[in-house]
Specification:
The chain has 276 residues and is an alpha/beta fold. It contains 9 helices and 9 strands. It has helices at residues 6-46, 48-52, 108-116, 138-143, 159-164, 172-181, 185-189, 208-222, 238-251; strands at 69-79, 82-92, 97-101, 123-128, 131-132, 145-148, 226-230, 256-260, 272-275.
Amino acid sequence: RGAITSGDVILVVVLLLNLTGYLWYMSMELIRFFEEYGVTKKNFISLTPFEMAGKSVPNMSPNLKCPEISINNLGYRFQENQHVFSDLNFSVARGEKVLLSGISGSGKTTLINLLLGHYLIQSGDILINDCSISKIHVNILRQNISYVPQNPTLFHRSIRENILYGKIEATEEELINASKIAGCHDFIMNLKDGYSTIVGERGDNLSGGQKQRIAVARAVIKEAPIMLLDEPTSSLDKVSEGEVMDNLSSYIADKTVLITSHSKGFIRYVDRVIPL
């Protein structure tokens, strides 16, 4: 009828498309904000043990050498009706190697986090040499534990600095020895800058298997009496897994070791298997 021109129609359509795009972008940013808020809130909760652990006895420094670990009636749940495990009981003798097995969600990683003091104990107790970990300052506790996570985090620094994070004052000889035990010395030397190679943000310049080997080297160089290995070879093939564990088996001979894994290949490296 000539009320509006075709140009007016095009203008309105384009403006509506732009408005829709901006609304979509705003909604995505809102979603991202709440995701980041959730991560931040969770991390602040995980910092609680720093204030709680060992607060009543800040100067207590028990002898954790040749450690024996006892899990007594331990229970943990994330929500009121979401029990991970309850009344868990077992002990790990001095120098014993134990494999924790179980389906996903059975509480293997949760138990590792409780041992590290990342989570507060809700019921029961964890004892190291008859001393409750709630009475051991978290810094002392972690100084005596070497930990290899399932998804290791590397810093945007050199390979040398990432390994030495386990023991800042370690010598070059100790660095190379730890790398050989972890099976990463050869591939590091094949890199252009060797141990000075920058791994990138979160280790993005390396493969998953390479990152995991560096994490193992970091744990080895620490020389702690307790080793916690949470799926330490999940990013490695069977041949590489066997190579790393063969090297580790002699290194951990005098250490108390807890391993979590779905792989049956670990059975020959441990003294017994505990199902969760």
